[in-house]
Predict the 3D structure of the following.
Amino acid sequence: MRIGSIINGTERVGEDRNTIDVINPYTNEKAAEVALASREDLDAAVNNSLEVFQTTMKKMPAHERSDILRRAAEILEEKAEEFASVIVEEAGKPIKHSRSEITRSIQILKFSSELAKHMTGEVLPMDAALRGENRMGIVKRTPIGVVGAITPFNFPLNLSLHKIAPAIAAGNTVVFKPAEKTPISAYMLVKLFQEAGLPNGAINLVMGTGEEVGSALVTHDKVKKITFTGSLPVGKTIRETAGFKKVTLELGSNSPNIVFEDGDIDQAVTSLVLGAFGFSGQVCVSAQRIYVQKGIYQEFLAKFIKATEELVIGDPRDDKTDIGPMITKEAASRAKSWIEEAREQGATIETGGSQDGTVLTPAIITNVEQKMKVVSDEAFAPLVSVMPFDTEEEAVSRTNDSIYGLQAGVFTKDIDRAMRVSDQLEMGGVWINDASTFRQDNHPYGGVKQSGIGREGVKYAIEDMTESKFIGIKLNP
Ligand code: NAP
């Protein structure tokens, strides 16, 4: 299979192009060959997107945008298994988790279809200001223009749709640069939108490396907004080079979870095993730090280790598999080296941490210190530290001791404590009685501190992808 960029509806796969191979992380077999975009292709994509914005998308009525998004949802429902298999192949994500990614992606399309019809503005009480009598003020939301969407490998369909679907709902056009490791689902998604009736050029797909094509997209002066999901170092570069563009950055974290003595231990164990090790921890809100109150620490730890050791590790194509490969052998080796470094610094590896190629077994680490990489940096791997604490104040202060602030989980049955702690946590979101890892596609999602700027979750992404325009009218009395 040879795939390439799609610009104005036409694929660019010429034999003269440089290529990269997409490698299945579990079987190590070649899944596809990608013909890379050149700088000229990127310019063509942006120019065409701008033209299609001005001639077509900007003028398209809301009911048409909504219909296209609804049809896209229906087609994705029909092709769910095909998309899930591709995510297994290119990302190594276990099939059951790939299927749930598709289910969530369908919901994003449905939410976007509905919200395309509800881009309302407001009428201002102009007479609230001195000399405002006999004036009328209207605030409208207008599409922004060409949106550059840059996405990571770990939720290749869901996170791409968190950008593309709200952009279309708002009447924008998109130049889409997917992760080079997972371009097949991106390619299929653009084809799916063509089938759903989206005009050519409303999404242009550019296949290429981040350093070449991604950075050129970020600095292109005809692009009005960059929406990026990925790592902190790349996010920082984007922030520094994007110039006057609007920028949304969805970055990483070392997500904390607090289990209080009055919490439901079994519920916490079940949520946190999935939350720490789902997709081998390659999730931005993966539970990486678990603070457990001293009175229940031993009981929690024993149950947590037992449940972790029951996870099925193996072939991601198998329905029973919980843990498959990491994205590359290098990623697994890097995480393994962090575990070894923690061990040398005095930590205890309670279970897991052995590597076989791309597969790293789920590791639970105790006796850690704040300075260790496994605690303070983003691991993005199947490893989690479990740490005891005494008081609520201590739990809050240790949770907040991070450069990141994306989502946290708090397990307690005390509603007053739940709300008190939520208010004090420096996070974009807090789940009570669920792990930091849980996400729905309709709530505001994004980070504080170095976890990012801006919010996704369809309604909130649309806000960030539109401008407000004021129209004032002076009326004759
Ligand atoms: P990454 O290495 O930062 O790559 C993300 C995207 O950026 C890829 O498409 C990449 O292209 C591109 N890119 C790389 N260098 C670039 C540059 N200089 N200019 C423009 N684009 C560039 O991230 P990843 O390894 O794929 O994903 C893991 C990271 O994403 C983790 O840190 C995770 O926490 C974060 N993440 C955050 C969220 C969230 O919602 N907050 C969700 C998921 C993941 P190439 O593929 O060609 O390198």
The radius of gyration is 23 Å. The first helix runs from residue 39 to 55. The mean pLDDT is 98.
